[in-house]
């Protein structure tokens, strides 16, 4: 299973804002920290705000921050809200309960195994909250270039020959 970029970006935005705490951030800040297009993040942030997970402050000194309850959200809740389809194969029901017929359905045991695997995946994500996965905040803040911290360069990248 692969999560969509939309879900990936949603999780990244929530993690970034959770690390920042009550401090306001901009879409530009998040874009630069992750190297993601501002345009891609704008829709993500808008929808996270509509869900009440992100607070937006308008004006000259405005920005974004996590809503107070967002730290308690599970990763599974975010993934369920941002993914449109969890049917690993066509014979499993999609979000609308639709499934494609399959000739072996009456005797198929694979479908049940795949459905159980998908449920286990979401159950594992439900065990972790946004607040929990942002720990330790100091290390994440440094990697994201917050508060003047210098991002840590991976060893492989640091060892690359210079031109």
UniProtKB/TrEMBL annotation:
Pfam families in UniProt: Rrf2
Keyword DNA-binding: yes
Molecular function, one GO term: DNA-binding transcription factor activity
TM ranges: none
UniProt keyword list: DNA-binding
InterPro entries: Tscrpt_reg_Rrf2 (IPR000944), WH-like_DNA-bd_sf (IPR036388), WH_DNA-bd_sf (IPR036390)
Key word Electron transport present: no
Domain of life, source organism: Bacteria
Any GO CC annotation of this UniProt entry: cytosol
PANTHER family noted in UniProt: HTH-TYPE TRANSCRIPTIONAL REPRESSOR NSRR, WINGED HELIX-TURN-HELIX TRANSCRIPTIONAL REGULATOR, RRF2 FAMILY
Record protein name field: Rrf2 family transcriptional regulator
Organism for this UniProt entry: Paraburkholderia ginsengisoli
Lineage: Bacteria, Pseudomonadati, Pseudomonadota, Betaproteobacteria, Burkholderiales
